[in-house]
Amino acid sequence: MRYLPKSPAEREQMLAEIGAASIDDLFAVIPAEYRLTRDLDVPRQHAESEIIDYFKAAADKNATGYASFLGAGAYRHYRPVIIDALVQRGEFLTSYTPYQAEITQGTLQAIFEFQTMIAELTGMDVANASMYDGSTGAAEAVMMAVRVTGRHKAVVARSVHPEYREVMATYAKHQGLPSTLVGYDRETGRVDLAALEAEVTEETAAVLVQSPNFFGIIEDIPAIAEIAHKKGALLIVSIAEAVSLGVVRAPVEADIVSMEAQSFGVALSYGGPYCGVIAAKEKYLRQMPGRLVGQTVDHDGNRGFVLTLSTREQHIRREKATSNICTNQALVALMATIFLTVYGKEGIRELAEHNLAKAAYAATELSAQPGTKLLFKGTPRFHEFVVETVESPALWSKRLLENKIVGGVELGRWYPELGNATLWCATEMVTKQQIDTAASVLAAGLVEA
């Protein structure tokens, strides 16, 4: 009976319990013109075997075998098969929020290990049990800085992911939190430090930057931190590509780090679910949103884990809640934990170096074609780079798709001043042959142009 509708007798009993004479009586509050008086126009019911055949046929229509140079906050990395084998175990897949420590030790320990690894990677003292994703994590970090400083203004770099900025604007709309955008240097792709210094004042609660930024450029975090701290503001560093921490120096000068951990073994899955993170200096622990798991010992001295901090209004007085985030991403965070455990410190470094090498080769080959130009050349970057073409991206994108290659992301919709510039990403999943093919297909039209 689990998947079947209620029987007529059960429906009659339910209506009698609530004092309604009929289904029509139950929905009488809805104006008649909005009520459907006919059966739904849906296909007939199917047998299980028919349903399987239907989805197999639908799957055959999917585009497979394409090389992808897309990045921009969603990264295609190899996922070890052990991840799904473990996260699909019943004790993880069906576990509930770990309120009762005595029956959720496995989930609590997994979260504790996740927090520990994230703190080590980011160079922060503490990390929470996870957020929804990197965009909400960045917005929550700004709210956290407001609580810590008692100030109500934010300065945001324009090189922060545009969609992260949109999410933050949604958060700030009803928070009385005005924010100012600071541009980037057109030569280096980094935050314009002079403009940043002019915007940060004694009223600024937070300075939000991203590194690697939306263009793939590594920001000068120590210089930015000096500007922020000189005025008493907190520095928040957003990281959209977690694998970068395999080779990029951790932003230890930051007060808060917000990160998207999707690259650590989480499938792209058409856009989610992802795994956001907030890590911070220990002195800001009490203002962190979400949950934190801590280690303790039981009555007999045995190691155990407990929910140490849960600052949602469900657990404490509403006016003292730091966030209304209703859950963590424990199952997705477990994927990241398994990924990091499988790779280890050396493995993550080797993976990051592999990505660096692929991107360096791709940037060289693509920008060597006639009518192309590598922007922000000479500035340190991770595995993303910006290429400007004489030819419209719409034209060469079509040619690439005909060769089963997805090209870079057009930047014009967010940065109209960059014209035909596109953001390309090369992870370990892209082969040298695919890079060479992309370069030759790109060149074919550019020579004619």
For CATH, the homologous superfamily of the largest domain is named as: Type I PLP-dependent aspartate aminotransferase-like (Major domain)
The rounded Rg comes to: 25 Å
In total, the number of domains comes to 2
Number of helices: 13
Oligomer: single chain
Strand content: 15-25%
N-to-C series of helices and strands = HHHEHHHEHEHEHEHEEEEEHEEHEEEH
The third-level CATH topology of the largest domain is Aspartate Aminotransferase, domain 2
Structural class: alpha/beta
Please provide a written account of the structure.
Helix content is 37%, strand content 15%. The mean pLDDT is 91. Helix 7 packs across helix 8, helix 11 crosses helix 13 and helix 12 crosses helix 13 (432-448). It contains 13 helices and 15 strands. The protein has helices at residues 8-18, 23-26, 48-59, 82-87, 90-93, 105-122, 134-149, 162-173, 193-199, 221-230, 330-367, 393-402, 432-448, and strands at 67-68, 126-127, 153-157, 179-182, 204-210, 234-239, 256-260, 276-280, 291-297, 303-310, 372-374, 384-389, 405-406, 409-410, 421-425. The radius of gyration is 25 Å and the shape is globular. It has a seven-stranded mixed beta sheet with strand order 2-8-7-6-5-3-4, with helices on both faces. Strands 11-12-15-14 form a four-stranded antiparallel beta sheet, with helices on one face. A two-stranded parallel ribbon has the order 1-13. The chain has two domains: 67-77 and 345-448, Aspartate Aminotransferase, domain 1 (Alpha-Beta Complex), CATH 3.90.1150.10; 82-340, Type I PLP-dependent aspartate aminotransferase-like (Major domain) (Aspartate Aminotransferase, domain 2, 3-Layer(aba) Sandwich). The chain has 449 residues and is α/β, with parallel strands linked by helices.
